[in-house]
Amino acid sequence: MHRLEKSFYSKTSMYSFLVLLVLFLSMWVATDQFLHIDMALLGYAISSAIFAVGLTIRMSFWLYRTATNRVASRSMKNLFTKERLKWSAKAVLITLVDNIILQKFIFKRGLYRGIQHLMISWGCLISFAITFGLTFGWMRFDLIDPETYQIVVFNIPTMKMAAHGLFAEIVYNGLNIGAIMVLIGASMALWRRISSYDVKVTQRFEFDILPLLILLSVTVTGLILTVLYTFFDGWMHHYMSLVHQVTVVIMLVYFPFGKLFHVPVRPLAAAVPMSYQEVVKVDTKTCKCCRQPYSNDDQIADVQAILQAQNFDLRLADGTQLSDYCTGCRRRMRALKQMNMEAPKGNPYGPVDTNNGIHLSGFSKKRSEEFYGIDIEQDYKGEKDSEPVSR
Amino acid sequence: MNKIMYLEFERCIGCRACQAACRECGDHDAKERNYVEYVDFTESRQTFPMLCMQCKDPACARVCPANAIQITEEGVVLSAMEEKCIGCRNCTFGCPFGIPKFDFEKNKMYKCDMCYDRTREGISPMCASVCPSDAIRFIDFDEMQELRRRRTQMNLIEGKKPQEGNKWDYVPEFFGVYTDSNQ
Ligand code: SF4
Ligand code: SF4
Predict the structure, then answer these.
(1) How far is the CA of B34 from the centre of ligand 1 (A)?
(2) Which atom of ligand 1 is closest in space to residue B61's alpha carbon?
(3) What pLDDT sits at residue A84?
(4) Bigger pLDDT: A387 or A271?
(5) Which of A201, A212, A289, B77 is most buried, taking the most CB atoms under 10 A from its CB?
């Protein structure tokens, strides 16, 4: 692999090349050595190739990030560990169904948003599948007799269908169905972006609204195209198909670089139940200070490794790291540190004396020295100084 | 504009008005993002407020595998972008101060954004605008310097001369320099 890598400018360019190669070969096979290629779709094919390269570049850079790399590689390792296989498979399945297919968490954010997102995502998935299937020639319809079509997938003849059957209608209208779904979803989203004050707090036009406009222009021109040749005998059809093609090209080229890039990020969500979920309860990390379990050993190890790789030094004097403490204790440590009350009497893990001599707090009573874990005898002999010790 | 969030922990009286105000802020979805906690409940009823530091180089963003935490041009570290956050909570554990909160239902992280819609326009954040004891303030850079200086003087008058080892006793915390420009 290393040798291969050396023959390219960079890892990313190698991956891009490989992706293009695979695409080209798949076209070669699927179209029976370019015998059945649909030249009308050439523009789409080229922009789809750009889309694939863009996606590869963005995915590569995303995976090189220290944090992503760490989490993704741990998940990969867990996925192929025998003992964890059952749990991992379950985790992937749950994420796939709940998170990606049904998108339950978005419905929890609101029914409106759930419907809106489900419409957009499934509409896009259907349309993308059909578009790529047809442009790369992965799928085609052969007329075997005047009444029957055969669906050919990767040059392998599969099922037959009646040319005017119900199933055929659904297949022909797949793109229209997808387009209508996206149209509904994207309009709902656009309305929300315009009318809700809450989303305006952090909303940016070029990031949040532009992708909606692009999606809408693709669907609207596509639907107009359908209307033109079903009801108007293909009037202006030629110009409209050009306009539609332009919008699709813009969308495909935009996809890897804008908001829509969250789609390929999502599958990483499987890493959470797979590697970090506390439900497994194999090894639960307890706070160094209050002894309460607050996380998972693997996760804290990852966090610490990621921080260290990026030169964050969050170590304390006693060698522990801030992430070894639960969040509550961490907040308290910060406040106490700022007030220089963290360990006024010696033991940093002992109780806090809120009476620091500068600010008398209302309820604090004077306590005996040993309450704070200080050995008076030793101090007296001068063998141990009772200077504040920080952890 | 060059405003600063100025915290004086020991001024906190534990009324939790800041938390109530936080729940009302735009886009906060009726959930508070700040903390009011006891220093040591078994010792006294002293509380302290806690907010995000809006770090220059935020550990939370660095440990996020989804690259979901964005920093605005003013330097405010925003809550996770909802479409990207995968809900791993690395940010909560990576943050040195334990700030980011997590909504398990909606699968998204949310954290103090200094009421971005308000501070962007130079309006004080919700918590600072309601704090009755001035434990949380949103003030000018100069005012902050003045307060710190006065605090040191007070201690000197009281006969508490800061030494190398304890000079930080005499300086209250400040953070969240809102912008770098036109100091
Ligand atoms: S959440 Fe924590 S790490 Fe992130 S900016 Fe705030 S204080 Fe810094
Ligand atoms: S919980 Fe979300 S914002 Fe926090 S680290 Fe994970 S993906 Fe990033």
Answers:
(1) 12
(2) 4
(3) 83
(4) A271
(5) B77
How far, in whole angstroms, is CA A194 from its chain's centroid? 25
Would you say residue A7 lies in a domain? Answer: yes
pLDDT (0 to 100) of residue A344: 53
- For ligand 1, say whether the CB of B95 is within 6 Å of any of its atoms: yes
> Is A380 within the bounds of a domain?
no
Phi, psi of A274 (to 5 degrees): -70, -45
Count of domains forming chain B: 1
Task: Supply the pLDDT for residue A273.
Answer: 85
Residues with CB under 6 A from ligand 2: B 64-66, 68-69, 80, 85-91, 109
Cβ–ligand 1 contact at B52 (below 6 Å): yes
Prediction ipTM score: 0.85
Give the structural domain span for B84: 54-111
Shared domain check, A53 and A169: yes
If one counts every other C-beta atom within 10 angstroms of the C-beta of residue A275, the result is 25
Domain identity same for A45 and A170: yes
- Contact predicate A71/A265, CB 8 Å: no
For A66, the enclosing helix (H) or strand (E) is: helix A66-79
Residue B93 belongs to a domain with what CATH number?
3.30.70.20
- As a whole number of angstroms, the longest Cα–Cα distance in chain B is 56
Of B26, B84, B155, the CB nearest to A201: B26
* Residue at B107 is within a domain: yes
Whether residue A249 is contained in a domain is answered as yes
Residue B9 is assigned to a structural domain of this protein: no
A161 is a domain residue: yes
Q: Do residues A204 and A155 share a domain? A: yes
C-beta atoms surrounding A175 within 10 Å: 21
**Buried-exposed string A185-207: b where 16+ CB fall within 10 A, e elsewhere:** bbbbbbebeeeeeebebbeeeee
User: B56 vs chain A: nearest CA distance in angstroms?
Assistant: 13
Give the lowest-confidence range in A142-151, A345-354, B125-134, B161-170: B161-170
In a domain, B40, yes or no: no
Report which DSSP code applies to A321.
B
B97 Cβ below 6 A of ligand 1: yes
* CA A151/CA A301 separation, integer angstroms: 51
Q: What is the pLDDT of residues A138-160, one digit of tens each?
A: 888 888 888 888 888 888 888 88
pLDDT of residue A4: 84
CA atoms of A38 and A252, how far apart (whole Å) = 19
Residue A368 domain boundaries: 284-373
**Rounded mean pLDDT of chain A?**
85
The C-alpha R_g of chain B, in whole angstroms, comes to: 17
Same structural domain for residues A186 and A313? no
Q: Which helix (H) or strand (E) holds A141?
A: strand A139-145
Residue in A295, A310, A331 nearest the CB of B93: A295
Apex A118 CA angle, A116 and A119, nearest 5: 65
